[in-house]
Design a protein that fits this description.
The chain has 150 residues and is of the alpha+beta class. The chain has 2 domains: 87 residues, Arc Repressor Mutant, subunit A; 49 residues, Dna Ligase, domain 1, CATH 3.30.1490.190. It is built from 6 helices and 5 strands. The chain has a 3-stranded mixed beta sheet with strand order 4-3-5, with no helix packed on it. The chain is globular, with a radius of gyration of 19 Å.
Amino acid sequence: MPPSTSRSIPKPTGLECRMAVLGTDVRLTPHRREVFEVLQGTNDHPTATDIFDRVKTRSPGISLATVYNCLDHLTSAGLIKQVHLERGQSRYCANLHEHVHFHCETCGKVIDAHPAAEFDPAKFWNLPKGTKITRMDIAIHGTCEACSSK
């Protein structure tokens, strides 16, 4: 039997899958891929500076400005979320499932908190009549288990 000439099709990356599901049309530059991969591999909600520190080991020629540009493109395309916690630097989250953020006021850790049951914010909050929710940015502040036990 002659050798097969067909090549295996490469498995799509998490970013490519997310883009297909969301119908997002973003040009995937190597730097955008690196920034997304670093962000997707964490659950600590890093700042742009944190991401820059992690990406530069994989892509030494990248600048902080390029990281900010990548984060801006990925956020505006809906591929990641920007998290604002009071007056601190913005943080970034690759988790697109419906959730809120718990911010420990002692150590600064940010943890994803998912609803315990089916949750309809329009039924929970007394919103003005006729409003339509497009997104929620909720942060819950307190002390994490590790800091509480100290």
